[in-house]
Amino acid sequence: MDTAGSFETEGGAAEVLNHLIEGAFMDSMRNPLAAAAVAFALAACGPQIPEGPETAQTPSSSAVADAAREATGRGATGGLDPLFEKAAREFNIPADLLKSISFTETRWQMVRGEEEFEGMAPAFGVMALRGERLERGAALAGVSVEQARTDVLANIRAGAALLSAEAEALKVDRADLGSWAPAVVRLSGITHTDAQAEYIHNEVFATLRQGVVAESAEGTVTASIMPTEVQAKFALPSLRAQSADYGPAIWRASPNYNARPSGTNVSMIVIHTCEGAYSGCWSWLTNSSAGASAHYVVNESGSEITQLVTEANRAWHVAASYSCSLNGSADCGLNGTSVNHFSVGIEHGGFASQSSFPAGQITASSKLSCDISKGQGITRDSYHIVAHGRLQPNNRTDPGPNWPWSSYISKVKAECGDGGGGETPATITVDSDNANNNAAVAKFAGSSSWIATSASPGYYGSNYHYASTQAISDTVTFSFYLSAAGSRTIDAYWVAGTNRSTATPFIISNAAGTILATVKADQQVNGSKWNALGTWNFSAGWNTVQVSRWAAEGSVVVADAIRVR
């Protein structure tokens, strides 16, 4: 790690409860009012804990529900609830507290962590155990480290054993749920005082108060927490400062930054995952010994965003120089330049291995990316809002294969009012990879006989498609949506090669299916750039450009991207 920033690194009562579980609670996350009803009913079953002051925002029940529905536990026959309860009984800890820690850390997903920041070991399992704590927990639970990484019950037992050991060391009153807070902090590994308070009050204990349920695709409950009126016996968070760059964000300064080079044009947004939970993430990046930072961190529910470095300054979030060959040949003039010079980095609480991302988090992040793009003049497309793993593929994969790129960029555009509905944008690019398209105005489709590849350099976007020439009607289709009829010029992009057809057919049709023209292009030349096919009058609706295989045999035809302007 270079501290100057050259190459930076980067948690009767039984009958009433049964009724709640079988009835209202099953629907509680679909309807926040039902969740409130469950809470009131539960409170009636026993003495209530007096409410303490709530100075910090807690996630809404709907945001928690989004995360729960989209991130049910995997690999546990019969669900996670019996496993949490078994481990809780074995190690004499509150089952719901164990569940809440797990939900805070992983949304009950069995994660396979990766390294995002040097010095922070990867996390594993529904308890997100990492490094020394993973090893110690495995030993305390009597399982191997590998079992604690990969087996759901072993991972939960290892986390439960660690929590119990911390409680024992602190002489916690095990019957008093609020008294467990210091032990939970120790288990988290968070050392930043204010982050500890945020983690306890606004994440782990907020989840206990609100309750949460996760259901399988079949509608059966896989994990659940009954709402509980509880206050953590722990210092409250301090007052928050507002971000100057983005109003909804909280300002928590990181020392890990430096000035951008004079005259730098900020032209990209880089999307990351923390490989951990929100409070642990932002607090780690405010630690000078971390040697890493990001401009923003978005929490799992989307209810909170932290800003760590001003957009005017250079955060340390990508340890790589730019290579346009990794990014669809976009902005090749930046080759060899540190990505950190010209980018804004957004971390997200979560993991590259998770199966989905909460809707609230995606929405909050898209609003943030829109704001950044407007303020910095960044192009809103998949070559300027990009994955960390795309730019640093040798040792990073975040935000992972399940980040919803197509819908995310569509949401960013919609927030900014360009392409999310209403008037058609002035220029539409349709890529052969739908992950790079704005689904509101662009889409690609083709048969399985067309092969996706990135074998030849110079392609647009993520890859290109090719097929052998043959006298058959087998096309791929680039579709683009126009909100009103009008004249448009069509450009095509391809990777040239000596085996390409010299007469590749491009069939231009309007939304009514009327063929306007067939243009034959020589794909042995003029590769890796836009080539004008012509200008036509298109109708409102979905118009198409098809690439056909019907050409002299012995060659291949390429479908890479089209541009409508």
List the keywords.
30% helix; alpha+beta; single chain; 26 strands; 565 residues; seven-stranded mixed β-sheet; five-stranded antiparallel β-sheet; disordered N terminus; elongated
Strands of the biggest beta sheet: in what spatial order?
6-7-11-10-13-9-14
Q: Which structural class do you get from the secondary structure elements?
A: alpha+beta
Total helical segments: 16
Radius of gyration: 26 Å
- Main β-sheet: number of strands, strand sense, barrel status? 7 strands, mixed
Number-wise, the strands total: 26
Indicate the overall shape: elongated
**Beta-strand content:** 15-25%
Which regions contain 5 or more consecutive residues with pLDDT less than 50? 1-77
Calculate the mean pLDDT score and round it. Answer: 85
How far apart, in Å, are the first and last alpha carbons?
45 Å
Helix content: 25-40%
How would you sum up this structure, described in words?
There is one protein chain. This protein is an alpha+beta fold.
